[in-house]
Amino acid sequence: MTKRSSAPRKHSPGAIAAMLLVCAPLLTAASESPPAPAISPPAAAAPPDDGQWTMPAKNYASTRYSELAEINEGNVKNLQVAFTFSTGVNKGQEAAPLVVGSTMYIVSPFPNIVYALDLSKPGAPMKWKYEPNPEPAAQGVACCDVVNRGAAFADGRIFFNTLDGHTIALDANTGQPVWNAHVGNINIGETITMAPLVVKGKVLVGNSGGEMGVRGWVKALDAGDGHVVWTAYNTGPDKEVLIGPDFKPHYDMDKGKDLGVTTWPPEAWKIGGGNMWGWISYDPDLNLIFHGTGNPGPWNPDLRPGDNKWTSGIFARDPDTGAAKWFYQWTPHDLHDYDGINEQILLDMNWQGKPRKVLVRPERNGYLYVLDRTTGEVLSAKPYGPVNSSKGVDLKTGRLIENPDKLTGTGKVVRDICPTASGLKDWQPSAFSPNTGLLYIPHNNLCMDEEGVEVNYIAGTPYVGMNVRMIAGPGGNRGAFTAWDIAAEKPAWSLKENFPVWSGAVVTAGDVVFYGTMEGWFKAVSAKTGDLLWQFKTSSGIIGQPITYRGPDGHQYVAILSGVGGWAGAIVSGDLDPRDATAALGFVNAMKDLKNATTAGGTLYVFRLP
Amino acid sequence: MRCAVAVLFPVVLMLVACQREERDTRPQSALGSGEQPTPVTTLEPGGQRPSPTDNKAASFEANAFHLSEGKRLFGWFNCSGCHANGGGGMGPALMDEKWIYGSSMESIHATIRDGRPNGMPSFRDKIPDDQIWELAAFVRSLSGNAPSSAAPSRNDDMMAHPSENRMPNAATLGKSP
After folding, report:
1. A467 contacts chain B (CB < 8 A)
2. pLDDT tens per residue, range A460-499
3. Structural domains in chain B?
4. Which of the residues A94, A211, A339, A450 is marked catalytic?
5. Residue A37 falls inside a structural domain
6. pLDDT digits (tens, 9 = 90+) for A188-215
7. What are the pLDDT digits (tens) for A581-604?
8. How many Å apart are CA A468 and CA B160, to the nearest integer?
9. Which residues of B touch A458 (CB under 8 A)?
10. CB distance A140–B90 less than 8 Å?
């Protein structure tokens, strides 16, 4: 069942040496007081674990690391099902469950039902449910299945977004709505799928719609009453991007006035994408939030000559005012739908002998970036899988070096571009363990053919202009789960998976990593070696975010939503036809056999030791 | 005599060649869509009534010109953005045998004109009525529901699937029922 070749498991002497180096402090830890780990998240952004799970990324540093260690490498093989729960929706389940006190909260895909489950009672009965009844028409403008990536808890309230563009605050005890803010407009193709992040009494929300010509933004809503405190657009004049005197980008390519207008053909920035549907991290010490920006629209690059600021990049902003502090563009003038919205893990580490505050980003364009998060300077950018769409990153100018053989355009078919539009890694978040110094990256291994075509902008309809056809990448495995040694800038180990690994990951102090596969396997592997320790076949393919928590009984639990879908699983959740190679923006061609491997579902699984 | 045949044969050929399908190259002007009511279910209390038919349906359905125009418009109006080349994406697949709101020309015309509640937008007054009929005819051809003599035979773009005139009927997939 496990697709694992010997090739990626080989431990080169270098890798072993690096692993020993990382493990060395642990070996001595028993006798002395534990030394500070070589790489660790800033304490303010990753406070000591209280056993809860109050935001999808676990903490502001986005480590998805739990200090719980009751379940460890030795006993994880004994895991068994504690209880299950059906979300009642058979669409892609991308959400992370939350656990606050003795209650678990889950958000379903559209129609975005929120359930509260009482963990203190046998079988975790439902405490309440809330149905926001979003507009059914919203389903027609959601690019890639009708997913929702989870809720956030703060100050006694559950905050979540609905597909039709509402942000809603619920009383966590009763499920009664406290406020409901309408921030997105489906008639221009705007939806919301991301999980909000609550920072300093503000709920941070961004829109989806990069395939519909929607102008991207991030809003901060007041957690108390939902009013919009600030809005930062990701294209357009500096005033609307909230670029002011404090804006100090590191590289010359990001310096200049109103680049969000001048790096576009006239008016194109108004329908230019740059949406924020992914992850936000927050550094309380620097008082900065970090968020990516999505792909420029349309996909056909001939229709938007220029660098297309501020798309496919990352902003550091002041959470109080939204004012931009720095920006870095992963993929200037994106040619391949390389959204820049993946997770960013905030870490402190020694880089070439000097302590640096870094931000680690496994980016869609295929590079594992290490940035100085105080300035936006790129310290490292190494590919973590097959990449031929570019030839590396120029660390002097910060610019991605395009491969002239893979330039797309109108009427031209370009073949074997790796990675695909879905990236070497899409939204599926990775996890970092300070125990091992490794970043655990669930990702894809796909390549594609692309042909640019003319496209008309019609508000509320797709604005793509690209025919895409995806295939498996080198080796034939369409997914991989890679442990990346951040300090050594290379993989420690990598597991092959038949289908793209579209689920998130979680890693624990018990040195166990959990992730799911699109066949439906929920797997536990060793954080040190990648050895498969345990697996359980759930009812449908897994594309959700695993979490782990301490239950009211004091024991450790692991939870995951099972239910295939998302862009990769749209062939099943949307019942698409595999005979059309371009279906689901070309993803179906790489997933023709998924219908034979799994069916749609929507079930929460919770595991514990006997 | 031989000479007469030599003259007559091309004349006959020419006459036969004149039997071309009719092309209405100046279709109805922009606004104003047909108002044909079309039920979306076959379940009708008191027994099924005959579905109303529109005489435009028949005239567009098997017409090569209208089908190829429909194929062009399918890209121009961004239908392909959601339904891809018939396999679907944001919207459902159109080349399979499943019809959520009915498979008739009239039903598809009404779907494009009025929209449907789970995400299909309404193109009323955005697309001229005749072009909606052309789109409806092309949509039917995606599942092999158009005569192969009339269905489009080539794609101008990267091949997504065999051309429409070679698509087997999705309901039977080429097998007899």
Report:
1. yes
2. 999 999 999 999 999 999 999 999 999 999 999 999 999 9
3. 76-155+163-172 (1.10.760.10)
4. A211
5. yes
6. 999 999 999 999 999 999 999 999 999 9
7. 999 999 999 999 999 999 999 999
8. 9
9. 77-78, 126
10. yes
